[in-house]
Structures are given as C-alpha cells and as structure tokens.
C-alpha cells in the first residue's frame, strides 16, 4: 500500500475537512502541531463552475500547509471533472490530492443527490469517481460513511466500487448518515473496508486522544488517522497522537499555552481573512477555553465583541488572567 500523498510519516495523522472550521489559518496551526496532511473545507463543484467568489476563496492554501487536499462535493461527472482540471491547473504545487465528499449528511446536500446520498446509488457514485479519476492529474480519493442507515450499511461494497473506479485512497467515517454525529463510530466496519481493498484507507470517527488514536489503529489497521472534532480548540491533539504512536510521554498544554494558541489563531484569522468575518472566531474561542476558570464570562465577552480589535483585547486579557493560576 503506497500513499499517494507525500507525508512525513508512514502513518499520517490528518486533519479532516470541516466546513466552517478547517480554513487555511486553522490548518496551518494544526500542521505546526505535527498534523501531516490537511483538507480544505468542502467546496461545491457547481459553485466553482458558476464562478462564486466565496466558493473560490475556499481553495486558498498557504505555503506553510502544503501539501493539502481539496475536497469537492458534487454529483455530475462532467462538472466535477472539469473543476478538478481547473483546480489542478490553477493551484499547481499547493494541492496533492482531490477528495470527493460522499459522506455529508446535510439535507441541502443529499437532496441534490450529493454527499452521502451517493452511497444509495453505487453505480452513480462509481461513474462520478471514474470520470474524476480519468480527468485528474492528481490522485483522487473519496470520503464516505458506514452507509446511509444501519439497514443498508454498505461501506464494504461501496469501497470496492470506488477502488475499481480509480480511487487512490479512501476515508471511512464509521457512522451512518442517519446517525449524523451521534452514537459511536463503528471501527469494525472500517476494519472490514481495510480488509476488502488494496488501496490505503484512513480511519475516521471519535479520535479524541492519543489512546483513541491507538485504538483506531489497532482495531482497523488503517493507513492513516483522520481527526475532526478532536482538533476543535485543540490543535495539540496532533502532538499527543504522534507521541502515542512513538510511545513517548506527552505533556498536555497549560491553559496559558492553549490561550496563546487561541490568540495566534484569532490574529491569523483577522490578518489573513476578511476581518468582517471575525464573529466566526466565537466558536473557536469557546472550544479553546473549554473547562478553564472564568470561561463562561470569557465566552460572554467574546460574543459581545463588536470589532476584531475588541475581540483580540478580550482574548489577551483572559490569557493574562490565567497566568499564575495553579491548574
Ligand atoms: C463542523 C463540522 C463540519 C464538517 N464538515 C465536513 C466537510 O466539509 N466535509 C467532510 O467530508 N466532512 C465534514 N465533517 C465530518 C468530519 O470530517 C468527520 O468525518 C466527522 O466529524 C467524524 O469525525 P470525528 O468523530 O473525529 O469528529 C464535518 C464535521 C463537523 C463537526
């Protein structure tokens, strides 16, 4: 099994695509913490085709986070293939792989036959993958779920069809579409997919610590570990997982170190993105401050901040309030 991506480690630990979360600023911070590979937020192939500037801005990749995969969603083979060619042309060197989203559970996506709806129509998904793989100068992967629902859990059959259609790598999130993000991710199903195909498979679902990363690896023998919610407000999880894989101790960050990272995140966001979007930082600040003394008041103040500089001032003051506090 050779990985089509050039990661530093044989067993890569990667940041999952997360709409509204895994933007270029957060991806870079995760890379600085040892994340081996990242994905853009999902990008609409149709949106790109019709030239939406907001859609286009999702493709921005900074040199510090190279290489990165672009995740596209769509269901029309011609449009998806054309957009892959365009992305490969326009982003030469920044992008190592194209991933097709076949797992998104949101009704506005599945209602168009995209995302996890493709798991209900394997021939259609196979035509899409075949066209994409043929058109693409880059490896094409796809990310999907255990199945649409428990009764129709078809990840193994789906994985085989994707492999035969030219996919270079697969990622399986061990939940059904019906489960959304509830219940436990089924790692046995991921293990069955790993067994069924000869291309690399990344395991995804419920990796929240070094221990759960080792469990994912041992249970599934996957070729890479994909972390989503475990990285929210906690880019240190990549250091923790790498330490667990290397069998060395990991010292968790102090609250001050966590807020230092929160501040860097906010400063990066405000300087590199449209500063008017600063309210998008609220959720990140809430995640970073989870469990800290004074976090409730901090979040309230963050939500009331009227300008980017006011927000930065609030973060700095909260960080200062933690200095010297025994944890
Ligand atoms: C806020 C949020 C946004 C997400 N956006 C995407 C996305 O754009 N593309 C995708 O394939 N999956 C997306 N996902 C799913 C995650 O990539 C991942 O499969 C899922 O959260 C399970 O992993 P976890 O248990 O580590 O969180 C999203 C999940 C969350 C929580």
List the helices and strands and how they pair.
Elements: E1 13-15, H1 24-32, E2 38-39, E3 43-44, H2 45-49, H3 53-57, E4 68-73, H4 77-90, E5 95-102, H5 107-110, H6 122-135, E6 140-147, H7 155-164, E7 169-176, H8 187-196, E8 201-204, H9 210-220, E9 224-227, H10 237-246, H11 255-272, H12 281-288, H13 295-304, H14 308-322
Parallel strand pairs: 1-9, 2-4, 3-4, 4-5, 5-6, 6-7, 7-8, 8-9
Helix pairs in contact: 4-6, 6-7, 7-8, 9-10, 11-12, 11-14
Bound molecules: flavin mononucleotide.
| Rg, Cα atoms, Å | 20 Å
Largest sheet, strands/sense/barrel: 9 strands, parallel
CATH topology of the largest domain: TIM Barrel
CATH classification, class level of the largest domain? Alpha Beta
The fraction of residues in strands falls at: 5-15%
Tell me the number of helical segments per DSSP (H or I, 4 or more residues long): 14
Bound molecules: flavin mononucleotide
Distance between the termini: 45 Å
Uncertain runs are none
The topology string of helices and strands comes to EHEEHHEHEHHEHEHEHEHHHHH
The outline comes out as: globular
CATH-defined superfamily of the largest domain: Aldolase class I
Number of domains: 2
- Percentage of helical residues? 40-55%
Class by alpha and beta content: alpha/beta
Output mean pLDDT. Answer: 94
Q: What is the architecture of the largest domain at the second tier of CATH?
A: Alpha-Beta Barrel
Number of strands: 9
């Amino acid at each position: 099994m050779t990985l089509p991506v050039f990661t530093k480690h044989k067993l890569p630990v990667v940041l999952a695509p997360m709409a509204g979360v895994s933007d270029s600023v957060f991806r870079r911070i995760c890379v600085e913490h040892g994340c081996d590979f990242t994905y853009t937020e999902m990008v609409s192939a149709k949106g790109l085709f019709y030239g939406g500037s907001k859609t286009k801005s999702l493709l921005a990749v900074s040199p510090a986070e190279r290489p990165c995969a672009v995740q596209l969603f769509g269901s029309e083979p011609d449009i998806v293939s054309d957009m892959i060619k365009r992305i490969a042309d326009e982003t030469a060197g920044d992008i190592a792989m194209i991933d097709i989203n076949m797992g998104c559970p949101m009704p506005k996506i599945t209602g168009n036959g995209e995302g996890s709806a493709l798991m209900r129509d394997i021939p259609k998904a196979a035509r899409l993958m075949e066209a994409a793989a043929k058109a693409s100068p880059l490896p094409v992967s796809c990310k999907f779920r255990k199945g649409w629902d428990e009764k129709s859990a078809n990840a193994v059959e789906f994985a085989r069809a994707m492999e035969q259609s030219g996919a270079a790598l697969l990622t399986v999130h061990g939940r059904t579409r019906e489960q959304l993000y509830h219940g436990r991710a089924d790692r046995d199903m991921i293990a069955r997919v790993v067994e069924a195909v000869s291309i690399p498979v990344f395991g995804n679902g419920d990796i929240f610590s070094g221990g759960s990363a080792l469990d994912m690896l041992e249970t599934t023998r996957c070729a890479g570990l994909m972390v989503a919610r475990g990285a929210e407000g906690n880019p240190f999880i990549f250091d923790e997982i790498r330490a667990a894989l290397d069998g060395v101790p990991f010292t968790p960050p102090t609250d001050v170190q966590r807020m230092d990272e929160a501040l860097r995140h906010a400063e990066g966001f405000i300087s590199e993105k449209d500063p008017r979007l600063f309210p998008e930082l609220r959720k990140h600040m809430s995640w970073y401050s989870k469990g800290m003394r004074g976090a409730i008041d901090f979040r309230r103040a963050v939500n009331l901040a009227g300008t980017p500089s006011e927000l930065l001032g609030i973060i700095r003051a909260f960080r200062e309030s933690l200095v010297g506090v025994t944890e």
